[in-house]
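INFO  loader      accepted 1 record
INFO  loader      residues=237
INFO  predictor   begin
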Amino acid sequence: MSWLVRMQLDTALARRERIHDSYGWHKKLWECFPGNPDKSRSDIGFLSRVDTLEANFRIWLLSKKKPVQPIWCPTGDFAVKEVSPTFLSHRYYAFDLKANPVKTVVQRGPNGETLYRADGKRKSGKRVPLVKQDKLREWLIRKGGTCSLNQNTGGSLSGGFRIIEDRPLEIRPMVASFFRKKDKVNGKYHKAYHGGVQFRGTLEVTDQARFAETYYSGVGSAKGFGFGLFLLAPLNL
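INFO  predictor   done
INFO  writer      dumping tokens
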């Protein structure tokens, strides 16, 4: 059982609620799941997306736990619908995806040497956003064929879908989503951003079980900040 929520919030109300960036939305959407302060996003199992319209925000939320209407969302602007068990049984879908496509660049010293942390472990590669159209297309195609779903082992599994090449694929320019987050160690705030790219096109399901897993776990990184949620409409091709 899973649930899809659509909320609407005008910009003035969002300002009064002090929702200024993606991290602000990240914190606010937890209020749809009261009584779970110690749970992580993956434990609850929800994905979200916030679209900025002319005078308001449209919020989508997909969860395996039924969300409740938060007190800051006006009555009439909160709609929740149970996702039918047969919804993911179709072969073709029109999709709309807002994702955070990145590549990992290995960090090396001035002489090309490997860098290590104080604990002796190798420094993680730095994530940088993808911006070129051809690289973004390749990234999405790769996610359909080899989408990383197993976070415990780091293994790569099929995303369970492929992009229909002979139908239009719209890739909008990357939009930077800036936010401020408090460091848990020193208590200071630091600025950061995620590069958001919207993809719209048609996909074919190649593995229903994998595709269902991709649908609920999301595509790409920064899922807690409003990226990775597939909006789908079944097609009869």
